[in-house]
Structures are given as structure tokens and as C-alpha cells.
């Protein structure tokens, strides 16, 4: 990591020591704490070159908000806390400044930092409870920070406030002739996208979808109202498109395929109206995934290939890797093993190129665990249960436990492959682990997978653990 040997120049804010992190360091030396940070990073697949000097700069307040790689590491080390709980400033209050100190600039350019949306005026970080989307002179939390949407331009919009376990929203009636949408409304749409994704990662789509539909309608109402500045209009279009994809994914994961298809088409249309290639690639990516799950593998291949054509100029190898996996899933559905293997090989080769600043923020979920999990799905679709189980097992071992939904999904994939591969006792063990996770996760897709596994295991009721799994699974179905 780059560090400056000089004292950072002052902007309009004097650095304030981070006493919280100093307290959490306890009796460890800065070097010992830095080593703990590096170990934690390896546990979740991040790469940070933390040293004693970096720790000193954080505690001195020179680094007011860490980059996204360090953010994930700190939140992994201290679960249940936000960046502000750890003594850092909200990301938006740092990134919104026109000038930054030398050290802040070098921190933002850390070579191991994943995509930082602050470089392209993207949305605020998901862990800041109500971050302002742009500069605020007094840094006080105002009403707009407590709403995902607010009134503007004669449109009736919805407020979305995401608590730790769910999405709540309240409608607010707008008054005709009120001011047109501005940066606050654009930031609110972006924040809604972040919060929906965060909750989905932790708890799955069921229970979120219905409540997320109203904010989506509000976002498009803001578009209809029209922004006075082109930059704000662009942000609203991009935010509304990403929100349509997020809501579409909630529909997809909860088994509402027709709704999902409609939302993805809406996002695609928004992308094409504005010429937003990144949004178009994202919409095609999700359309390919949906087509595969809906039993339309040829459409999955076409959508994935279209996404790759759009995404190629964007310069993100990680994005191209994911899109190759989407194509591989389509080929597997068509039982074309050769084409599937070729797409999988491309996905691995592209993934090995690592992160870049061009990686879209929404791809934060895509790491080695996701790659293994998607490959497992390909092999299971092709009927190669042994290879499918091997990749699914690796996915469960690599998955960050904070992504509870994905951990449940990959474990369910493992259970199904083991059941169909003639290993009922191991399958039951994996199935029981999924049932334990379903107290936290609500996903119709995972429940459908478990139901299929249970049917396969019925003839093996006498095998070790199978009867317990079947009884608990039956009890869960009756409870739901």
C-alpha cells in the first residue's frame, strides 16, 4: 500500500484521532494489529498490505474512511459494527470533497482496492446507515438522509428505510409544483439499491420483494418528474435501472419469474435510452441467469453473449468472467458439454486476472466461492454429480459467512449433488446445515432445491441422518 512520508496537508477539516480503533487494538502493538488485519483479510479473500504505519495513520485520523477492501476486513474483524461504529467518518462525507489530502488520495489509489464508486460519483457505501449522497456543509443528518425517496417535481414518491432485518417503507404525497428532483433524490435511489442488496445477501428475497416494489415505482416517478441538471438525470436513470435489476432479482429468487423478466426488461430499456453500457450488461447478465432457471437455456446463452459484447469495452475481466459463467450455464442446459467447458475455461482465465477499478460495484458478491458455486450448477445440470459436489463443497468452504443466502444456496447444491450421486448420508448432513440456515434466509429457490433433494432421499430413509433431515424438512414445509 502506498504511504506518504510527509504530513498530510490540511483541508477544511483537521484530522481527529480514531480513539475507537485504538481501543479495539488493545495491548497489541501496531505491527501485531496490522498482522491481525492481514490474517482477517486472507480469511475473506481480500488482499491488503496493512503495516504498522497504516495503523498509525488510521489512529491519528489521517485516514478518515478506509477503502472498500479495508472496510470489508474491518467489518469481518468486528462483526455487527458499522464503519462509524469503528470511529471512521461516513464515506460520503469524505468522498464528496472537492479537495483531499495527499494521503487520502494515496489511500484511494491502493493497488489492492476493489472498485471504488467515489471515483465515478457512484452510490454511497452499504454499511453507512444514512450517508449523504454528496457534500454537506454542516454534516448534520437531515430528513433526506432518513428517507430513501423524497418528494419532488409533483411526483408521489415512497420512503424506504431498511432496518437490520427487513425493508419498511412509507408513502409520502408530493405537492404539485414542488422542486424538481436533485442530488438528494438521486442519492436516495442509490442508497435503496445498496440496502436491498445488503439485506438480500443476508436474508434472501422472500419477504423483501413486495416491499421493494414501491420504491421502484417511486424511482421511475422521479425520472418522469425530470431533473434540472443532466448529471442528476444520469444518476437517476442509472439508479432506477439498478433498482429495477435489484427488485427483479428479488422476484427471481422468490420464484416470480414473470415479474423478474419484466423488471429486467425495464432495466434494459432504461440502459438503452441513456446509452449506459454498464447497466445494459448488468441487465443482460441477470436476464441470462433468469432464462437458465426458467428452463430457457438457449435464451440464456444469447443473453449472456449479448452481455459480453456490451461489456467488453468496459475493461472489467471479473465482469467478463461472470458473463462467461452465465453462458456456461446456458450451454449446460442445452446439454452441450464441450461449449460449457469452453465457457468455464474462459471464466477461470478471466477471473485469475484479478480485480480492477473497472469492476462494477454490484459485483462485490463475485469471488472464488461464487465461481465455484456456479460451476457446480453447470456440472449438476450436465448430470456429473461427483464434479458438481466437488465444486459445491469448495464453494461452501470459500464463502464468506456474512453472505448467508449464498452459503445456504451452495450447501443446498452440495446436498442435491450428493443425493443424486448416491451418497445419501453425506447429503442429509448438508441438508441439515441448510435447514439451520433457513432460520435466517428466506429464498424460494433454496427451498425448491431442498424439496428436490428430499424426494431423492426418500428411498434412503434408513441411511444415517436421512430420516432426521426428512422429518425436519417436512416440519419446515408445514410451518411455512
From TrEMBL:
Q: Where is this region: Disordered?
A: 1-27, 85-140
Bias (Pro residues) occurs at 123-132
Signal peptide: which range, if any? none
Protein name as catalogued: Tetratricopeptide repeat protein
Amino acid at each position: 500500500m502506498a504511504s506518504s512520508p510527509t504530513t498530510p496537508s490540511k483541508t477544511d477539516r483537521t484530522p481527529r484521532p480514531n480513539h475507537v480503533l485504538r481501543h479495539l487494538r488493545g495491548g497489541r502493538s501496531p505491527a501485531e494489529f496490522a498482522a491481525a488485519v492481514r490474517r482477517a483479510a486472507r480469511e475473506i479473500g481480500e488482499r491488503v498490505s496493512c503495516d504498522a504505519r497504516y495503523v498509525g495513520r488510521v489512529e491519528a485520523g489521517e485516514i478518515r474512511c478506509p477503502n472498500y477492501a479495508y472496510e470489508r476486513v474491518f467489518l469481518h474483524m468486528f462483526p455487527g459494527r458499522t464503519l462509524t461504529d469503528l470511529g471512521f467518518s461516513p464515506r460520503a462525507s469524505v468522498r464528496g470533497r472537492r479537495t483531499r489530502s495527499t494521503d487520502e488520495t494515496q489511500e484511494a489509489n491502493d493497488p489492492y482496492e476493489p472498485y471504488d464508486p467515489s471515483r465515478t460519483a457512484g452510490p454511497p457505501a452499504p454499511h453507512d446507515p444514512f450517508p449523504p449522497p454528496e457534500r454537506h456543509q454542516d454534516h448534520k443528518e437531515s430528513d433526506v438522509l432518513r428517507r430513501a425517496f423524497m418528494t419532488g417535481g409533483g411526483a408521489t414518491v415512497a420512503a424506504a428505510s431498511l432496518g437490520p432485518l427487513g425493508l419498511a417503507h412509507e408513502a409520502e404525497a408530493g405537492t404539485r409544483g414542488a422542486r424538481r428532483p436533485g442530488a438528494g433524490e438521486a442519492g436516495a435511489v442509490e442508497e435503496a439499491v445498496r440496502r436491498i442488496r445488503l439485506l438480500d445477501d443476508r436474508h434472501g428475497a422472500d419477504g423483501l420483494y413486495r416491499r421493494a416494489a414501491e420504491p421502484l415505482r417511486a424511482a421511475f416517478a422521479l425520472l418522469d418528474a425530470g431533473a434540472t441538471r443532466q448529471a442528476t438525470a444520469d444518476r437517476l436513470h442509472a439508479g432506477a435501472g439498478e433498482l429495477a435489476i435489484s427488485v427483479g432479482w428479488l422476484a427471481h429468487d422468490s420464484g416470480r419469474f414473470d415479474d423478474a423478466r419484466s423488471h429486467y426488461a425495464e432495466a434494459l430499456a432504461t440502459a438503452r435510452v441513456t446509452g449506459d453500457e454498464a447497466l445494459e450488461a448488468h441487465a443482460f447478465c441477470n436476464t441470462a441467469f433468469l432464462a437458465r432457471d426458467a428452463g430457457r437455456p438457449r435464451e440464456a446463452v444469447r443473453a449472456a453473449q449479448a452481455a459480453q459484447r456490451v461489456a467488453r469495452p468496459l475493461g472489467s475481466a471479473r465482469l467478463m468472467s461472470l458473463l462467461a459463467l452465465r453462458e456456461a450455464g446456458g450451454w449446460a442446459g442445452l446439454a452441450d458439454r464441450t461449449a460449457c467447458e469452453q465457457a468455464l475455461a474462459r471464466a477461470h482465465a478471466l477471473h485469475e486476472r484479478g480485480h480492477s477499478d473497472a469492476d462494477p460495484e454490484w459485483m462485490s458478491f463475485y469471488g472464488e466461492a461464487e465461481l465455484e458455486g456456479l460451476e457446480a450448477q453447470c456440472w449438476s445440470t450436465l448430470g456429473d454429480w461427483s464434479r458438481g459436489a466437488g465444486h459445491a463443497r469448495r464453494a461452501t468452504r470459500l464463502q464468506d459467512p456474512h453472505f448467508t443466502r449464498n452459503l445456504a444456496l451452495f450447501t443446498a447444491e452440495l446436498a442435491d449433488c450428493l443425493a443424486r450421486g448416491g451418497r445419501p448420508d453425506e447429503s442429509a448432513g448438508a441438508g441439515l446445515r441448510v435447514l439451520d440456515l433457513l432460520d435466517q434466509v428466506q429464498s424460494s429457490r433454496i427451498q425448491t432445491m431442498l424439496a428436490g433433494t428430499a424426494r431423492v432421499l426418500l428411498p434412503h430413509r434408513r441411511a444415517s441422518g436421512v430420516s432426521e433431515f426428512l422429518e425436519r424438512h417436512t416440519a419446515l414445509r408445514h410451518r411455512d
